[in-house]
Amino acid sequence: MSDINTIEKEALASIESAGDLGTLEDVRVAELGKKGRVSGLMKQLGGMSPEERKEMGPKLNALKTRVDEAIRTRKEALEAAALEAQLAREKVDLSLPPAPGPKAGALHPVMQVFEEIAAIFGDMGFAVAEGPDMEDDWHNFTALNFPEGHPARETHDTFFMKALEGDDAKVLRTHTSPVQIRTMMTQKPPIRIIAPGRVYRNDWDATHTPMFHQVEGLVIEKNTHMGHLKGCLIDFVKAFFEVDEVEARFRPHFFPFTEPSAEMDVKYTRKGETIEIGAGDSWMEILGSGMVHPNVLRNCGIDPKEYQGFAFGMGVDRLAMLKYGMPDLRPYFEADPQWTRHYGFAPWATPSVSGGLS
Ligand code: PHE
User: Fold this and answer.
1) What is the Cα–Cα distance from 186 to 191, expressed in whole angstroms?
2) Ligand 1 pocket check for 258: Cβ under 6 Å
3) Where do transmembrane segments lie in this chain (predicted)?
4) Residue 288: CB within 6 Å of ligand 1?
5) By CB neighbour count within 10 A (0-12 exposed, 13-18 middle, 19+ buried), where does 74 fall?
6) Is 285 marked as binding a ligand?
7) Do 214 and 176 form a contact (C-beta atoms < 8 A)?
8) Maximum Cα interatomic distance, the chain, rounded to a whole number of Å
9) Residue 262 pLDDT grade (very low, low, confident, very high; cuts 50, 70, 90)
10) In the chain, beta strands by DSSP E
11) I want to staple 121 with a disulfide (CB 3.0 to 4.6 A). Which of 55, 57, 126, 257 is the partner?
12) In b/e form, how buried is each residue of 28-55, taking b as 16+ CB within 10 angstroms?
């Protein structure tokens, strides 16, 4: 039994030098396992005389306990070191910018421009009105003073829908002007609304898509005149393009539902790829407008001798192209996430006249 001390020294030395949990387990098996050295000594107790056993028993038990404790202590130290190493390896540096990849959704430029327009007109006291995309012929044309069979109906490249039995034929609205009619039929003047929405015409090239977006405006009061129309729209263009001055002209035009009618042109400068609105040597048409035709007022039960007002309509997709430098309209509706990421807006940055529009 002289090797108790030797075994203890060797066992403690190999426990101390075990560099990982696997090696430590090998040491445990070699000393305390069924066929281990310490277990082998314990087995010898059975063959000893009672006196020998009385002397050796406590010694061997103490050896077993010390080796066992040394293994447990070393195991804890190795486990703690392994955890440290893992934590160091898997550390996340939260101060780093996020890895490139899909980011949160972006607001489509058309939606952004809708919101900008609503913010500007909202500031002037306009409410937002809506109407259905699928209209009847009366709201889209007849009530707006398009005579039956008049060629103006054809210039709209209308999508006509098949009539259901016993029902009037429907069209996909070709402009937002039917919302004027719906508003005047249900509200008493004074009226001051804008109507943003989708409109449809059978057309397809770099600047025309079969579905596009317009914003309509309507003001009906007792004394509203052409001067108000001009002032309101010039103020709008200045606010929208974020410029101090805009040179504008109102060029006579024809719309069945306004008289007189005018298209509004603004001066612009082309600077390389981009266009600057406000001044320059070329004119660009940006919207249609006019004084609401007395027939339209009458069709809606409003007395043209008592009330008058103005209306305007503009293409939102084109305004967005001009303001944000997008050259082609078609990708607007191709749902390409790369395009949306490039031209889109942060959805939480609500435009406001005082806080900034874009
Ligand atoms: N509805 C016309 C269009 O789509 C625009 C317009 C609206 C013109 C209101 C005058 C007044 O072309």
Assistant:
1) 11
2) yes
3) none
4) yes
5) buried
6) no
7) yes
8) 133
9) very high
10) 127-128, 134-136, 170-172, 191-200, 211-221, 248-255, 258-271, 274-277, 282-292, 308-315
11) 126
12) beebbeeebbbeebbeeeeeeeeeeeee
Average pLDDT value over all residues in the chain: 91
Q: What are phi and psi of 214, to 5 degrees?
A: -130, 160
145 in contact with ligand 1, CB cutoff 6 A: no
CA distances from 358 to 119, 242, 301, 313 (A): 11, 9, 40, 22
- As a whole number of angstroms, the distance between CA 226 and CA 257 comes to 15
Q: How far is CA 58 from its chain centroid?
A: 77
Report the separation in Å between the CA atom of 312 and the middle of ligand 1, taken as the mean of its atom positions.
6
Count Cβ atoms below 10 Å from residue 266 Cβ, excluding itself.
25
Choice between 350 and 236, residue whose per-residue pLDDT is larger = 236
For atom 4 of ligand 1, which residue has the closest CA?
175
Query: Taking the CA atoms of the chain, what radius of gyration do you get in angstroms?
Result: 42
pTM recorded for the entire structure:
0.71
Token code pair at residue 341: 């990421």
Q: Which residue has the tokens 């430098």?
A: 325
- Segments making up each domain of the chain, as ranges: 4-89, 109-343
User: Ligand 1: which residue has its CA nearest to atom 7?
Assistant: 313
- The three-state secondary structure class of 166 is coil
pLDDT digits (tens, 9 = 90+) for 58-117: 999 999 999 999 999 999 999 999 999 999 899 887 787 766 655 677 889 999 999 999
Question: Using a 6 Å cutoff on CB, does residue 140 contact ligand 1?
Answer: no
Helix 21-32 with 37-44: angle, nearest 10 deg: 20
Residue that is written with structure tokens 């059975």 in the block: 46
CB 12 within 8 A of CB 70: yes
How far apart are alpha carbons 101 and 266 in whole angstroms?
A: 41
**What pLDDT score does 13 carry?**
93
Rounded distance, CA 202 to CA 210, Å?
Answer: 5
Q: Which two tokens stand for residue 155?
A: 């210039």
Rounded CA separation 14/10 (Å): 6
CA-CA distances (angstroms) from residue 357 to 300, 309, 323? 35, 28, 11
